[in-house]
Amino acid sequence: MAITSNRKILLGIVIAALALRIAVSVGAWALNKDTAVFYQNDTIGYIIPAVNLLTSGTFSTDGEPEILRTPGYCLLLIPGIVFTRLEAVTIALQIILGCVTVFLVYKVSLALFEHEGIALLSAALYALEPTAWMYVPLLYSDTLYTALLTLFFYFIAKYIKSEAVADIGVSAVVLAASAYTRPISVYLPVMVTALLGLRIALKRTWNRRLLFHAALFLMIAMGLIGVWQIRNKVEAGYFGFSSASANNLYYLVGAGILAEREGIPLAELQAEMGRGHWKRYFDAHPEQQTWGQTEINEYMARQGIDLTLQYPWTHLKLFCRSAIKILRDTGPHS
Question: Where in the chain are the domains?
Answer without folding.
Answer: 2-236, 244-328
